[in-house]
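Ticket #4471: structure output looks truncated?

Reporter: J.K.
Steps to reproduce: submitted the chain below (133 residues) through the standard prediction queue, then opened the result file.
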Amino acid sequence: MADIFSTEKRRVIMSAIKGKGSALERHVAKILRKNGISFRSHPTRLPGKPDFVLPKSRRVVFVDSCFWHGCRYHGSIPKSNRVFWKQKIARNRDRDREINRQYRRLPWRVVRIWEHSLRAENGTAVEKALSAL
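Returned output as attached by the reporter:
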């Protein structure tokens, strides 16, 4: 099925997708605040641009969307320009694995929160996991 938007319109739509301050990140920040967990958003000195840093517990939190990070359950490849998207999402997944390896070498732990876990049951599982930090 062809895209309903022109190439130029699709480019504008995709470029408007924010890398910081997404609804998913705001949801996680709300959960962290609710549980009294101190954090910093988008620090610049740590590898991989984590969404949140929990300095006291030396953890970094990445909020991964199902589309951009290739969720095996909910990720999908757009029907147009499939080769590009397969490669793009594969690179994102490779980068995620490399970032995890980098943090394993440091005294930091990585917490990855998937979009679908925030949407399921209004994020109660994520809230329980984060409150345990």
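Triage note (M.O.): checked the attachment and the full token line is present. The mean pLDDT is 86.
Status: closed, working as intended.
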